[in-house]
Each structure stands twice: as structure tokens, then as C-alpha cells.
Write a structure and sequence with these properties.
This protein has 390 residues and is an alpha/beta fold. The chain has two domains: 5-180 and 298-386, 3-Layer(aba) Sandwich (Aminopeptidase), CATH 3.40.630.10; 182-295, Alpha-Beta Plaits (2-Layer Sandwich), CATH 3.30.70.360. The chain has helices spanning 5-8, 11-23, 32-44, 104-121, 141-147, 150-153, 206-218, 262-282, 302-316, 334-338, 371-386; strands at 48-53, 57-63, 71-77, 127-133, 158-168, 172-174, 178-180, 182-191, 195-196, 231-240, 246-247, 250-259, 286-295, 298-299, 321-323, 343-351. Bound molecules: zinc ion (ZN) (2 copies). One zinc ion binds at residues 102, 137, 359-360. The site of one zinc ion has 4 residues, from loops.
Length: 390
Amino acid sequence: MNIPAQIGALKADMTAWRRHLHARPELGFEELETAHFVAEKLRGFGMEVYENIGRTGVVGTLKGRHGGGPSIGLRADMDALPMTEARALPHASRVQGRMHACGHDGHMATLLGAAAVLSLDRAFAGTLHFIFQPAEEGRGGALAMLEDGLFERFPCDEIYAYHNSERPFGQVVIYDDVVAAAADRFTITIHGRGGHAATPHLAVDPLPIAARILLAIEALPGRLTNVASPAVVTVGSLHAGEAFNTIPDKATLVGTVRCFDDEIRSQLEATIRRVAESEASMCGARADIAYETLFAATVNTAAHAGFVENAASEIVGAGAIVRNPAPELGSEDFSFMLQRRPGCYFLIGQGDPDHQAVAHDVNYDFNDGILPIAAGIFVRLVEQRLGRNR
Ligand SMILES: [Zn+2]
Ligand SMILES: [Zn+2]
């Protein structure tokens, strides 16, 4: 491990910031205190700070003192999850039903640490935009910032972000291409006709229709799609009826599609619609289908993955870098930024005996030990891309 001295000196501060944020979790688009904290810190580093971008987003802009050059966007997410923390840590959440269970507290502290160091001497040529994004957990924060003109107001030639991972401590995982899956949500409502359980011939029972649709659509991956490109259809919610002796008039299925390939995505959407509509109409019922894309697939560009690899190998050494393992079917809304600008989203392992719980677990906590690693990688990346002491 070769942490830059200025970053090493900031470890206690970064840890304090992270724990401060951890104790005060806020959900997507409600990050008011969080955004204020971040903006105040960035101002303290002497940056131009812009607030309320994509509702609660914040951007800090830092210009190098060696003149013009490329612009780089570094991004962290700010939102917490609607869960209650299980462990009685000293810095545990002070809000019942709210928890930084995905480590976005750590991502913010990392970016603040990098911002603090890079603003010390601004010894680079070009511009840095420190992007603090709201509402990553399915509420559309990246798109909100983009629709608010993020890249028009803060032009970025390339963008970078990282996520903590349950992999071993200090391991850096870098993909040249697809990192994370696209994730869609569908809601299928079957409208039948209710009646008495004793006279089903007078009703149109939506339950067997919903059951057939569920079995048919969950079986689509692997039959409809190429097994070489993974896809998953999962129905996570199925609701119909109240009483044992009554046929309800409707049934609702809510589920998700996960895959890496856009063509497979639209193929699955079209087929889910076709199956639901035809199963329903076959029985004299009607299906309403709402289908929404929550996350695009997260796709890096190989050149920028290479820049992260160079920066990371200076910090953790080449032996701690894992290249292109099989991607997992998780998803990430930095994908929408990567659709518009080239860049790299990478992972840093935080697993050690004290940090075994995976993200979104009530026992999870971000590992402060990776703050200097992550901030160090961002600092080296900027030095490498925008030159140092030119
Ligand atoms: Zn998460
Ligand atoms: Zn996350």
C-alpha cells in the first residue's frame, strides 16, 4: 500500500466526515443536511460550489493553476436506504428507519478527501468537477442531474466513480466494458371479474392467469435469450384477493428484469407484454402493463479503465488489481452518466473480519480503512490525466 502523504494525513478527517454522515442518513432527494455538509466542506477548500442540481445534488468546481486542459468529473452518491441499522456502533444512524447501508457515506468522504488534497496546490492543467449525486437507490438521481443540465453546465471529458465491495480489503476490481446490469421494473395488473368461489363459471378469475404469467415470464431467460448473455426475470410481489371463498376482480404482479444487453432488454420487455396480454385475453380478462427502466447497464470504456488501473496500481500495487471478472446482476445509476460521457466505474474491496456484512444488510458498515485507498486513486488519476507541476 502506497498512500500519498497528503491523503494519509487526512485519514482521521475523512473518517470523521464519514461517521458524521453515517449518523445522519437521508433518503433520495431528501439529502438536505447531507448536501449542506458537503457544500460547506467544498467551499472550505476554496471551490466554486453549485447546489440544488437535480434537486439536492451538489457540484464543486476546481480549476488547475496551470491553465486549460481536459475536464474530469468525479462522482459520489449521497442517499441512504429505508432500513434500521442493527449494530449499536458509536456512529450508528440516529434516525429510525434510515441507514447508510450501501456505503454512500464513505463515497462522499472519499470525494471530499480527494477534493481537499487536490485543492491544496491545484497543480494541474484542466478542470475538476466533484459531483455529489442524490437518489442513487432507484429514485433516479443521476437522470435528475443530467436533465438539469449537468454536463452542459459542468462539461466533463471523462467521468469516474467507485463503489465499495464485499471483496477482500484493498482489492480493486476494474472492468473494460460492462460492470453492472440494467434493471427494469414491471407491474402487470390482470383485470378479471370477481364473484363467488362456488360459481367460477360466472366470474373471470385473475389468479390462475397471474400464476401462468408468472411461470411463463420467469422462464424466459435461457429460452428466449442467449445463455451466453445472462438475464434474470424475477416477480417479487404477487397480490390478489382477500377471502378464501371469493374470486377477486384483479391480480397484480410486480417484478424486475436484469440483464447486460440492451437488445435482450427490449426483447424481454416485448415478450413480457405479449405473454401477459395473450394469457389475459385468452380467458376474457385484460392485462395492464407498466414497464419502466430504472437503470441502464453500466458500461466502461477500456481506455479509461486503463487509466484507473494505472492510478490504482500506484496505490495498491498491481497484485491487488482484478481485471474483468464475471459481472454481477446488481445495478448502478452512474450508468446514465456513462451513457453520455466515457469513463470508468470501479470497485474497491472492503472485506475484513470487522466488515463481513454485504451492502443493504442491516449489519453493514462502510470500512473507513478504504478511504485513503479510494481518495488516493482519485488523486493519482487526476495527476496522471491532467499532469502534475507542468
Ligand atoms: Zn445500494
Ligand atoms: Zn450503492
